[in-house]
Amino acid sequence: MLKKTIYSIIVAGALLLQGCEGFLEETPSGSLPADEAITSVTDLNNAVNGVYTGMIDFDLGLGDFTEPYSYYGGDFIAYADLKGGDLDYTSSNNHISPMARFEHSPESNYSEQFWQMPYTLTGRVNDIFSVIDGIEVEDDEQEQFNDLKGQLYALRALFHFDAARLFAKLPTLADMDAANSGIPLSKEKYHVDFEPTRSTLRETYDFIKEDLNAALGLLSEETNLGHINYWAAKGLLARVHLYLGENNEALAAAQEVIDDSPYSLYAIDEYLNVWGVEGAAELMFEVLTNAAHNSQRNSIGYYTHSGGYGECAFSTQGYELLTADANDIRSQLIEWEEDETDTKGYYTQKYPGRNGSLYQNNPAVIRLSEVYLIAAEASVKGGTASQGKSAEWYINQLRQNRISGYSDVATVTLDDVLTERRKELVAEGHRCWDAWRNGKSIYSPRMNREIDGNYGRAILPIPKRERDISPGLTQNPDY
Amino acid sequence: MKKLLLLSLFLCTSVFFANAQTKQITGTVTSKSDGSPIPGVSVVVSGTSTGTITDVDGNFSLRVPENETLLFSFVGMKTVEVPITESALYNVAMEQDVIGMDEVLVVAYGTSKRSSFTGSAQKVGAEELVGTSTSESIDKMLSGKVSGVRVSSTTGAPGASGEVQIRGVGSINASTTPLYVIDGVPMEIGMYGYTGFSTDLLSTLNPEDVESMTILKDAAAASLYGSRAANGVVLITTKKGKSGKTQFKFKATYGTSETAMKNVYQPMSAEQYVDYVNDALIGAYLFWYEPGLYPDDPGYQDAEVLERALQYVQEDPDEGKWGITSPSANTNWRDVVYKKGNTMDYQFSASGGNDKTTFYTGVGYNKIEGIVIGSDFERYSGRINLDHKATDWLNFSLKQMLSHTSQNGYGDQTDQVQGINHMAPLGMIFSMNPTQPVYNEDGTPNQDAGMGNVKNPLTALIGTGERTDQTYILERYRSLTNASVRMQLIPEFAIRSNFGVDYSDSKTRVWWAPESVDGEAYNGLGDHLTYTTVVKNASFIGDFNKSFGKHNIQVFGGYEAEGLTYRTLQANAENYSTYKLPELANGQALAVDSEVASSNLMSFIGNMNYNFADKYYASASIRSDGSSRLGANNRWGNFWSASAAWRITQEEFMGESSWLNDLKIRASFGTNGTLPVDYFAHSGLYTFSSGYGSESAIYTIQPDNPDLSWEKSDNFNVGLDLRVFDKLTASVEYYHKKTRDLLMLVPLTYLTGFETSWQNLGELTNKGLEFEVHSNNIVTSDFRWTTDFNLTTISSVIDKLPAGKDVLKGDGGMYLLREGEAINTFYLPTYAGVDPDNGMPLFYLDPENSDELTYLRELAKPEIQGKPTPDLIGGMTNTFVWKGLELSFLLTYQMGGSLFDYPGYFFHHDGVRLGSMNLAKDVENNWWKKPGDIVDNPRPVAWTSDRPDRWSSRHVLSTDHIRLKDIYLGYSLPKSVVSKMHMSNLKVFVNGNNIWTLAKEDTIEPEVTLNGYRTVDTPITKNFLFGINVEF
């Protein structure tokens, strides 16, 4: 009997070897859960990089190649210029060119992907925020930690600002307090069954400003290639104030950047050579591209060349505006390209590509010229700030660096500032909003008429798939 | 010393026997049916260990005590009891046991007598498997033999697996394959190979080693396997030795194979092709230059325009590129790509043992040369099964299988990739120009025969060390180890333990030589992929058995743990400096990749069987499973079953019926589950492979869902078994399986940061009737005719989807998931045939609402076009035995299902693919040529952008068919002859499978996988085999 007992113990005991602690906890070899993925400041840095790379990587880096799309890498930049009418497509490749025809419906990929991009990346930000308090921060890492946290706030603000411009009316054209006038706010990590609803436009912009101000309290003032620093966030805040018609605040923020930041305007003799250069003097925030991470055929460089899709050439009005003054160095940043007969046309040379690849162009999210133009616009609209200067001063400063033999002007109008914006910021994703938020219209060569910001298709429809998931999401009028 | 001890023991025993009242008896055991002697019958004095085994001639002699009973038993025969009288001669004739109610079934974690089993399970014995000639993989052998089981193949490539479904389609997104359990240990199956090169771990198993398979169908039978049982369970039991004389068996088989249906994938002849091209170019002129195809075209039925079109074609705008000049050859490239395959199979086994130790050893060699040139499959396998009884209370066994398989093949398309691969053999048949000869005049393969960039199959498919080689080689090692021990601690209580290790190592080597079609872009590509899987399983079970009067109770409970780990390693190289050396070192390194993942399962099981006087039966089971694949909130799940049976014939009020031998009704209810396919579907995950600038970047790619749970199925089963006139057993069953909490990829608001997540939503129901009959139609002393028949009805309907919304899935949204409709319903525009006036195709514009027609497919709305799951499947086997001669054949049938003919879409291209693809033979003389023609295919229009060829009801074809699945003719030499040759059995046989098929559509292979998608693959084969079986 003893023998039987001993054997029994051996037989049964062998099993216990398997049933040890954590037997049912398994993780994959190529990925980790959030709380294990981000445990140090280095991890946090990589996670913040993961938000940035989504801004330029093809399909947000998700490897879903069914409907290619890109955010700052190409599609989002092209959107405002194609709708603005200064750029136009040559070919019938139909990747981003339908925007020039205001061709989008709730079922179309455009509305879905322009929704998907900012919100997916906001989701990434919120996912990091959900574990950020669990990170072990050494004393000497506190500054970096704060900076990274600040970047996350600034990015979340930027994504909401973009989504608001795409899916909601511009603040100056709308009743800010009307129900559902804004966009859904993505404030935290959500459960998979979350159903968002729209906020008011005021809540939307308050949230954007709140996040930017939170960021400014944390961000470093050092230049940080490919990352948002204090100055970039300040410049973005200036832009947001300008959109809101808060001219005093816009001017104050812009002036601070102009006075104190380490950036300087491009000079005439360097203007043709700063494109395609990382860390050029004006670049406050550029998104980094390289051979491995870019938007491939949906990249802005591929859109703006005849050898690519050729979907962002100059329209006649755009070409004429830019080339009106032969002394303006910006007129020389245009080339006739004819790599393919069906894509021939005049193209901007802002995206020449690096390492021989049109895919590798770092899109500028904000650069110093724009800050001058923000200051000028805020000033011309009557904005004042303690260090603020006149609109003429800002415009003259900029033009001196653009036009050979330029003589300062004594007065500028709002139209002068807006024209200057068209010239300086063409193909950088601003045009239609700059006109519309000022109550102006643009001429669309493809629609063959003037279009103002109250036109229904000036904004995108809420994608049908989002409204299927969240019936409480109100659709935009005219869709 | 030991010897001395044994000797004294022996002496004592002898003395003991000498003192008892014993006597010597002799006898012969013969078969009641044919009078032939039966060797190996166990003859035992009831209740003792005294006994012997009959010799080759069926004779035995034994010293026995008086007033006892002799028990004669033999597998497959009814046990005979004979009281020992004064006689010294005991000749016994044994009767075949006809799938009796009392066969022993291997069931979940044990065995059960058929009569007392309350669930739904069916056994397929080795003898039923033997008659099948597809010796590469056991799953294919089940075809047509078991009700409720559907077996199908994606491809006829050697080494590829079949697809087994038990009782319909259990899931939309999770697994639909049953669990395989070998000798009590779950066994890993699956591809573990290179995408685009079909293979399955199942083919590592030598079917010859299998003693029986049991298919567990309902909850009562399968719920003990809990979270993996929802699609049924296949229990495999390997062979065991029997004590007695060592038995040697040798079997050799040789055979040939060809496509099962000769009309499948036949290309158009050269002459017809030239004609077709001509018409397609006329069409092209009328489409592109002077529109005149459609009634509202300006040039419609305008003789002058047509004249100019003819002129255009006469001028030969493309310089004979399309073979418009008279054909110089008429090549059927199908005959080049497909050849006669052949099969070789050699099996040798020895088994035997003594009272304490029995063994089975078997070695096998199997080689199949596929019908596609250059493809083959080879398996070496060995098995040792050892059982030892150490003491009267301690048994243990060790089973070990080792096998090596290798497979040479080609890139195939079983994974439903978009488009047609010009290197897939089937793609090649149609990408070759039929007007071109196979060889040049100097005898070398004609490399200009392809349309577009296609090489001559003679050089592309065969790995001959050429610069155009494109080869796929898989080598696989597998080891299955199973050790078990059982201790009978007291008569009522025993404990047992089982340990299994399942190891497989699969190495795929892909070689695209620098000048091969796909290799050119890389200047040679070598790609090596290794998959290693290790599954460790351990279980510990306690058994309790007790009878109190007429109450019999059997209880067991235990614990089981299983861990699976797979590891991959992939490396590839490009830019080879020579085509002669395919190893990676001879190219430039391209990429490396590796991955490791584990999935673990921990379980507690319990089972109780109760029976009262072999009349009333009740069973209950429970299993609690914890899985690493599930979210923390739902990691553990309980699965249970309850069942009962009533053997009415045991009731006294039934009396002794002259015709009704047995009648049993049974019912069961219980739950099963299915785990997510993805090991980590519940976990929020960050990917680490990205970068930003020069730094690393990580980001979240999957949301966490701690609530993720199993798919659960509620199974109800009611059945009736009966046996009448001592010759016919029948059973009828009704099953109803409702699957809840289906794992669905549910769209999320992008505010979560994700597009979709796996959630438990959706319901579907599978239900049907199963009907089986086994009949001994005629049994005389030298003739026997038996029939086995089965029929199953299947209905797989979706009950609930996320938010009740239709889901379109599959390629181009061709499948509809809709509440109330069958799973994977085809959803495509309806083709209304060809307009006889002008030859243009017609489609219903809005078929659900009107009869209006349109010429343009893109305007036509889709409607439901049938479903892949058949309504009815089944099979019938008839066996005739006359003396040593045996003839049996199995017919299988299937009705009410459809398939989507993806290859047919390419081969009925209506001119769209002119110049890159030939057409199917059924288009010959079956396309529109002149007004009034009533034909199936429209007027061809080269490169038309209207795309009439795009998917429509034209590509949905019926899978109804009857097939002679197996036919077997064997002859066993008379025992008298054989014994002179010192053998116990010598049998020669011929065997065929898929010999004959009667199909509604004879141009497509109707046995298709559960989604009904006919991929661009090699069709299954028919085989003719000759073999010899020797036992001594």
Automatic annotation (TrEMBL), chain A:
Superkingdom in the source lineage: Bacteria
UniProt subcellular location: Cell outer membrane
Gene3D superfamilies tied to this protein: 1.25.40.390, 1.25.40.900, 2.20.20.130
Cellular component aspect of the GO annotation: cell outer membrane
Lipid metabolism as UniProt keyword: no
InterPro entries: SusD-like_N, SusD_RagB_dom, TPR-like_helical_dom_sf
SusD-like N-terminal domain sequence ranges: 105-242
Keywords carried by this UniProt record: Cell outer membrane, Membrane, Signal
Keyword Membrane found: yes
RagB/SusD domain segment(s): 342-479
Major location category of this protein: membrane
Database matches in PROSITE patterns: PROKAR_LIPOPROTEIN
Family: Belongs to the SusD family.
Protein name, UniProt field: SusD family protein
Origin species: Mariniphaga anaerophila
UniProtKB/TrEMBL annotation, chain B:
Family statement: Belongs to the TonB-dependent receptor family.
Annotated TonB-dependent receptor-like beta-barrel domain residues: 472-793
NCBIfam families to which the protein is assigned, alphabetical: OMP_RagA_SusC, SusC_RagA_signa
SUPFAM superfamilies per record: Carboxypeptidase regulatory domain-like, Porins
UniProt entry tagged with the keyword Membrane: yes
TonB-dependent receptor plug domain location: 116-233
Gene Ontology BP terms: siderophore transmembrane transport
Keywords associated with the record: Cell outer membrane, Membrane, Receptor, Signal, TonB box, Transmembrane, Transmembrane beta strand, Transport
Signal peptide start and end residues: 1-20
GO CC annotations on file: cell outer membrane
Membrane topology note: Multi-pass membrane protein
Matches recorded under PROSITE patterns: TONB_DEPENDENT_REC_3
Name under which the protein is recorded: TonB-linked outer membrane protein, SusC/RagA family
Gene3D superfamilies noted in UniProt: Carboxypeptidase-like, regulatory domain, TonB-dependent receptor, beta-barrel domain, TonB-dependent receptor, plug domain
